[in-house]
């Protein structure tokens, strides 16, 4: 059972309820600590059992308290003073709303003023010391929901064994043309193209599965609710382009730039389990103005 303290993002406190186990088993099986993190904790003596340092093969009894001090971490990025909309927050993570056109983390072409830099500023304001770790990802021109881990423990739990792809993710997309069926599934493998940027549907690629429902039929376009069973790079963009219905504004995959200047794609809802919360968390994000305006412009 998880217990809390004043700065829970820095440490983990667990009360063991049940039969006796070794400390190592409790850390790995009950607290879900990764082998990599376990090695660091052991090396730096960061685990206490009933306020005392113990060996990992020592026995944990019913009602014993385990405290893990998470490793101190140094942030990699410079702060960028920009306010970010926070949708949800708990001890282990922050869920933010990413604006379109904003690069997620620094690259050679975009060394600063990225979302990661803005999050450093947000973390400093909140007194959170640590690295910026994204649990999910969005392309630069895709807007919507991003999860940011406050500590290495949260990041490892939420990305281990493809757990992030077990999340209930819903995207809103506007594609060219009229899609006949009211709903459907695209099951086509995706491969990185030779140019290194684009992806293509190819039999040698990784399996990719996209589900969609028609939300509204527009003038020369279709508003869709899209969910992913897999998480390949550019998956939604590639699948609908291959079907002859590229996303509006998606120049890379053949979409028209007439009515919107970036791919009409928004991560609108996300359901997930946070490491120390028992119930599923569902967050939602409103459509940004450019997609709202696009829908209004194309409404019949």
UniProtKB/TrEMBL annotation:
The keyword Isomerase applies. It holds the Pfam family PseudoU_synth_2. PROSITE patterns: PSI_RLU, S4. It catalyses: a uridine in RNA = a pseudouridine in RNA. Its EC number is 5.4.99.-. Keywords: Isomerase, RNA-binding. SUPFAM superfamilies: Pseudouridine synthase. One of its GO terms (molecular function) is 23S rRNA pseudouridine(1911/1915/1917) synthase activity. CDD domains: PseudoU_synth_RluA_like (cd02869). It comes from the Bacteria. Residues 92-242 form the Pseudouridine synthase RsuA/RluA-like domain. The keyword Isomerase applies. PANTHER family: MITOCHONDRIAL RNA PSEUDOURIDINE SYNTHASE (PTHR21600), RIBOSOMAL LARGE SUBUNIT PSEUDOURIDINE SYNTHASE D (PTHR21600:SF44). Belongs to the pseudouridine synthase RluA family. Responsible for synthesis of pseudouridine from uracil. This is Pseudouridine synthase. It comes from Acetoanaerobium pronyense.
């Amino acid at each position: 059972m998880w217990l809390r303290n004043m700065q829970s993002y820095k440490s983990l406190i667990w009360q063991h309820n049940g039969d006796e186990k070794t400390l190592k088993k409790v850390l790995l099986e009950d607290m879900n600590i990764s082998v990599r993190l376990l090695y660091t904790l052991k090396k730096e003596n960061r685990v206490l059992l009933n306020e005392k340092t113990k060996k990992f093969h020592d026995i944990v009894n019913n009602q014993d308290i385990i405290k893990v001090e998470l490793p101190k971490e140094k942030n990699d990025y410079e702060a960028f003073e920009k306010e970010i909309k926070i949708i949800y927050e708990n001890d282990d993570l922050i869920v933010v709303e990413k604006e379109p056109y904003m690069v997620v983390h620094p690259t050679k072409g975009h060394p600063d003023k990225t979302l990661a830099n803005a999050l450093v500023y947000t973390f400093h304001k909140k007194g959170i010391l640590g690295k910026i770790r994204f649990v999910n990802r969005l392309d630069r021109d895709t807007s919507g929901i991003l999860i940011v881990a406050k500590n290495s423990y949260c990041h490892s739990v939420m990305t281990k064994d493809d757990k992030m792809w077990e999340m209930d993710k819903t995207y809103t997309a506007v594609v060219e043309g009229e899609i006949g069926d009211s709903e459907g599934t695209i099951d086509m493998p995706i491969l990185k193209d030779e140019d290194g940027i684009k992806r293509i549907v190819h039999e040698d690629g990784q399996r990719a599965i996209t589900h969609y429902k028609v939300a509204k039929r527009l003038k020369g376009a279709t508003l869709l609710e899209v969910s992913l069973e897999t998480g390949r790079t550019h998956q939604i963009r590639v699948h609908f382009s291959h079907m002859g219905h590229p996303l509006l504004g998606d120049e890379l995959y053949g979409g028209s730039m007439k009515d919107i200047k970036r791919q009409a794609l928004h991560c609108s809802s996300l359901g997930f389990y946070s490491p120390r919360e028992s119930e599923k968390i569902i967050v939602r994000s409103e459509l940004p103005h450019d997609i709202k305006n696009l829908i209004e412009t194309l409404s019949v």
